[in-house]
Known about the structure:
Layout: H1 2-6, E1 10-14, H2 21-31, H3 33-36, E2 39-43, E3 61-65, E4 68-72, H4 77-87
Parallel strand pairs: 1-2
Antiparallel strand pairs: 1-3, 3-4
Amino acid sequence: MLHSLEHGAAIVWYAPDATGLELDRIRAFYEDDEVGSRVIVAPYDYPEHGPAGVLPGGAGMSLVSWHHVQTCDELSLPAAFGFTSGYAAPPFGQRQYRGNAPEAGAGF
């Protein structure tokens, strides 16, 4: 994940026990190659950093790019896209790249 972040990827982390329509919507949206090729959607499953399945601060979703983090209480496709559309490189559509990854846009 770290190497992908260095190249300008963004990550949508969610609790491993998360279920429901919004998670399905997030996964399906980022499966699209045009949008998802620079976004990783994965469960946050790092028990060595706290209770398994619990994001830091009890967040429902954590959005991450190189040196940028946004947390949300609940899973939200609009919030995920709002973050990833500008912080993943290249940015989506005509948006300006807001990140600062050292090798933004390099192959993953």
